[in-house]
């Protein structure tokens, strides 16, 4: 075991973007708590399942990036506060208050009532694909589906959704355009500013004419109940918008690649579609869209696996490594849709467990089920290792493209 810091450039390579799991395996063995250094900030990566699960509930690891130390400046930059001051970046009791308010929008009855509409959106998107015999499943399906769903939940007017999607994709795909870093940074800042302005205007419009949507519900919590500030209102709306489509889109892309490169499992799922809910959990364990949980800050000196983590350090819990830990999952690098459902960490753990888990599962089940049912002979149009992906240093693991062919 070593506590020598690993340069991020040595870890986050092009090869890592294609397949990070060999690197994760080496880290679990050689440096399960791995110091990583980069130009923007240094951090410690926790890679084993038991340590990861413990860290996700460790009260010494704070999610409050906006308290003393202003850690958000190191992580997200100076223009981020207006969009990131929300429950994702807070601790109890603030987190408990914000989550309780937001959880109303994800009540089981509300989400189940949405199922027919999600199924309709899925059908409409697939209808456009079917006659062509080929498609880019990211551009044509995986990205627009969750955006259309979260757009309806938030109450974003239909005419605005394409523009909102475009700006969110600027943030999602940052670092992959090949433009100079300064140009890329300026584009992201412009996107953040536009989205902050748009969501502020949306709140104003909904305050004047409320509807049966999440934003109107949050406004009521702000204006009538006084339990949400104006800044929290806008930031929470951004969190729901971005988290509501980003990870689901990336997950569906990753899941389809996993199935298409494991034809025995694809055939199994086609023959036994009732296995789909179980398969979604295994696909999430196998290649999740959020490799590292959102950052935490050590509020005191602490130790994991004999490695000292000084107070003020940024700590990343490597969920995708933990989900491939052979101490918890037999033959973890093999996709097995019949695997006994284990306690994977794909949706997190503890008080920050994914709030939108039921919606994500619904969209994935309806979406992937429709693709397998309606696109016979579905196959990749290029080798999996040649697919354009988000950069290895991105907080998300996902595809920029997913070209496929099938029998029209």
From TrEMBL:
UniProt keyword Heme, yes or no: yes
This protein's record includes keyword Metal-binding: yes
Signal peptide region: none
Domain of life: Bacteria
Record's keyword terms, sorted: Heme, Iron, Metal-binding, Monooxygenase, Oxidoreductase
InterPro entries on file: Cyt_P450, Cyt_P450_B, Cyt_P450_CS, Cyt_P450_sf
Xref: PANTHER family: CYTOCHROME P450 YJIB-RELATED, P450, PUTATIVE (EUROFUNG)-RELATED
Record-stated family: Belongs to the cytochrome P450 family.
Protein name: Cytochrome P450
Species assigned in the record: Asanoa siamensis
């Amino acid at each position: 075991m070593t506590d020598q810091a690993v340069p991020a450039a040595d870890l986050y390579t092009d090869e890592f973007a294609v397949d990070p799991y060999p690197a994760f395996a080496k880290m679990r063995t050689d440096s399960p708590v791995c110091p990583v250094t980069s130009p923007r900030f240094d951090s410690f990566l926790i890679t084993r399942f038991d340590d990861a699960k413990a860290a996700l509930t460790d009260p010494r690891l704070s999610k409050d990036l906006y308290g003393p130390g202003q850690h958000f400046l190191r992580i997200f930059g100076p223009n981020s506060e207006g969009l990131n001051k929300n429950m994702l970046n807070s601790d109890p009791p603030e987190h408990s208050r914000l989550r309780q308010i937001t959880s109303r929008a994800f009540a089981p009855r509300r989400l189940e009532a949405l199922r027919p509409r999600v199924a309709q959106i899925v059908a409409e998107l697939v209808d456009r694909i079917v006659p062509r015999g080929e498609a880019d499943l990211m551009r044509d399906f995986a990205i627009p589906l969750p955006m259309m769903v979260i757009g309806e939940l938030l109450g974003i007017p239909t005419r605005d959704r394409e523009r909102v999607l475009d700006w969110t994709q600027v943030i999602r795909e940052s670092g992959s355009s090949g433009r100079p870093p300064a140009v890329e940074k300026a584009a992201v800042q412009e996107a953040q500013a536009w989205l902050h302005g748009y969501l502020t205007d949306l709140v104003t419009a909904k305050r004047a004419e409320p509807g049966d949507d999440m934003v109107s519900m949050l406004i009521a919590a702000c204006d009538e109940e006084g339990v949400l500030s104006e800044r929290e209102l806008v930031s929470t709306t951004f969190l729901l918008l971005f988290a509501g489509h980003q990870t689901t889109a990336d997950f569906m892309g990753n899941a389809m690649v996993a199935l298409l490169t494991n034809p025995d499992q694809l055939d199994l799922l086609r023959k036994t579609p009732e296995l789909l809910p179980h398969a979604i959990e295994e696909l999430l364990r196998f290649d999740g869209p959020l490799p590292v949980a959102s950052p935490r800050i050590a509020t005191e000196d602490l130790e994991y696996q004999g490695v000292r983590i000084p107070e003020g350090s940024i700590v990343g819990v490597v969920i995708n490594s933990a989900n491939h830990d052979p101490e918890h999952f037999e033959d973890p690098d093999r996709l097995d849709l019949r695997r006994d459902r284990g306690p994977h960490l794909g949706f997190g753990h503890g008080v920050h467990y994914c709030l939108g888990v039921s919606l994500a599962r619904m969209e994935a089940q309806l979406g992937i089920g429709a693709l397998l049912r309606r696109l016979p002979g579905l196959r990749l149009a290029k080798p999996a290792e040649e697919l354009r992906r988000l950069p290895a240093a991105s907080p998300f693991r996902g595809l920029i493209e997913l070209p496929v062919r099938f029998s029209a």
